[in-house]
Amino acid sequence: MFNFRRLSVKKTNFGIVFNLECNKDGFSSSSKLQNTGDGEHVENEENTILVDKDENITLIGINRPRKRNAINAQTAEKLSAALNHFEADKTSPIAVLYGAGGSFCSGYDIQDLETQAESGNLEYLMRHEGSVGPTRRHISKPVICGINGYCVAAGLELALMCDLRVMEDTAVLGFINRRFGVPLSDGATVRLGAMIGYARALELLHTGRRVDAKEALNIGLVNRMVATGTALGQAVNLAFSIAKFPQASLLQDRNNLYANAYSRKSFRDAIQNEIMNTSKEVLKELKEGVQRFKNSENKGAKTNAWHIKEKTLPDWEKAEIVHENKVKTRK
Fold first, then answer.
1. Exposed, middle or buried by CB within 10 Å (0-12, 13-18, 19+), for 94?
2. Is the pTM of this model over 0.85?
3. Residue 41 pLDDT exceeds 80
């Protein structure tokens, strides 16, 4: 089992740093640097994926800040393992994926890609689950990502794998791999059109241009736009607002939506799929919900707000948010 401890946050001259303390089989708490002997420091590859829990919410962090969280083959394997562990964890209904140290993910590690290209062996294309994680399949439970800094190339494909995206107002999205001739291989050509429409998807794929948070929210590429430095906290709040509901019916509706978006060929097939997938667990939740509605004032968790968990913010963070709001008002 993972040895989970608490998540701590501190502010430095380089932004906000999240320190997670947990250890098991290569998952660790910090990205330690090793000296190569010639004065150059490299990241310890054992510490590139962070795993923690906030109550029943699983937190998974990409931790290669000196590479802007670019993912190499080893990190991709560890990310897949962390998400597999989350899927098997019956105590955790939802996960939050984030990037430590200033960026969400800048795509596949270009140095690793160069080495593979020179050897003529592009292993990253052949990974069963995906080059940067399990992007070539649906995760069996909801995942929310908190986007900060750069979320580009395969990093954007990783974000598209998630159910919901919470993006900071200064973050940047885009398929900048276009300029380097690197093709998309982690599901963007499958998911993007379903999310934002065929024409918009083509335009982003053709141009590889940057997309800011306001545009991303307007076209449906992300679900929330939040203040700089708050993506992880707001993503966790959103996760708690979903975790409070009965999960069997939520997962059934989610799975039906995915199937109808990508698999069903006709309206009739989609309707049939929606009806026939009703499970015993869903019927049990339905029965309990009806009785709760009839016999009690407590009719279950409300749906009209997603800020359901109060967080105590330090004074510096409150002051920073006030300052950002003033800047926005002046604009």
1. buried
2. no
3. no
